[in-house]
Amino acid sequence: MSDVLVVVGAGSIGQAIARRVGVGKTVLLADRRSDNARAAADVLSNAGYDARTAEVDISAAESVQALVATASALGDVSGLIQAAGVSPSQAPVETVLKVDLYGTALLLEEFGKIVVKGGAGIVISSQSGHRMGPLTIEQNRQLATTPVNDLLDLPFLRSDAVRDPLHAYQLSKRANGLRVQAEAVRWGRRGARLNAISPGIVITPLARDELNGPRGEGYRMMIESSIAGRAATPDEIANVAALLMGRDGAFITGSDFLIDGGTTAVHWFGGDVTSSRAW
User: Fold this and answer.
1) Is 98 one of the catalytic residues?
2) What is the DSSP string of 143-170?
3) Which residues have CB under 8 Å from 45's CB, separation 6+?
4) What is the pLDDT along the chain (279 residues), one digit of tens a residue?
5) Cα separations (Å) of 201 from 87, 164, 221, 262?
6) 214/255 Cα distance (integer angstroms)
């Protein structure tokens, strides 16, 4: 039985990371849409990878537990890439919180129980978590350490306290970074590492939805006013993920890497050149 790399969210970024870190491993591509997983598996299989597929709904505990069982039956789970999620233009508040916040925490908890020594995980978060104003110390602690099943009952995450899907998204991505810090301690007891990457605008189908959605103007403004002056490619995110998951990243755990072409720097320190309503 080989080592198993689990890729949750079979989109462009997940596939790009899998190509770099999945050589010689069984790559299990899991997605809510089985056709997405199969399409990604076909691409990887044709390139020489041992690719398998699974269907998963990360907002449902039973579904995530079933995915853990499927992955464990294939071999030792040595890697997890959490690249699944929804954007503010794709879903209402409740769905954003259930998938992006709760679902990520659930994956980290369940795979943290079985990841093998020397293993590593990556959560693909977002620059959006760095663009929201500060929370209280207690709120940070709650997002990091509240038991998964109680997370969405936190007062500041209830529907009457979250303004709109963008606010829900920002809270979710802030929570992702905090959760990675806390879970890295638990993963560390098993000899495994865990980090997050917070990309800026990366050209993917999700990004195209945003460009064509109600926040498209602000989205384009972020690209134009960023220090890099362009959006990123999935491969640029995967380059950093490969470092974090490989031997050269052995001293890195519990960290959140902002890779956004400088848009967050411009947001906070570049004057009135970005929209405060853009994610």
Assistant:
1) no
2) HHHS-GGGGGGSGGGSTTT--SHHHHHH
3) 51
4) 789 999 999 999 999 999 999 999 999 999 999 999 999 999 999 999 999 999 999 999 999 999 999 999 999 999 999 999 998 888 999 999 999 999 999 999 999 999 999 999 999 999 999 999 999 999 999 999 999 999 999 999 998 899 999 999 999 999 999 999 999 999 999 999 999 999 999 988 777 777 777 777 877 888 888 999 999 999 999 999 999 999 999 999 999 999 999 999 999 998 654 444 444
5) 12, 20, 11, 11
6) 32
Take residue 82 and report the two structure tokens written for it.
């959490």
CATH architecture of 3-269: 3-Layer(aba) Sandwich (3.40)
Measured CA to CA, the distance from residue 107 to residue 8 in angstroms comes to 9
- State the virtual CA torsion across 244, 250, 255, 258 in degrees, nearest 10: -30
Residues 6+ apart with CB under 8 A from 168: 88, 93, 96, 97, 100, 101, 162
What distance in Å separates the CA atoms of residue 62 and residue 199, rounded to the nearest whole number?
29
Instruction: Determine the Cα–Cα distance for residues 231 and 225; give it in Å rounded to an integer.
Output: 11
- Please pick, among 49, 102, 173, 219, the residue that the annotation labels catalytic: 173
Length of the chain in terms of residues written: 279
Tokens for 74, please give them.
Answer: 């294939």
Among residues 49, 102, 169, 219, the one annotated as catalytic is 169
Asked if residue 119 lies in contact with residue 65, where contact means CB atoms within 8 angstroms, the answer is no
Residue 169 annotated to the active site: yes
Domain residue extents for the chain: 3-269
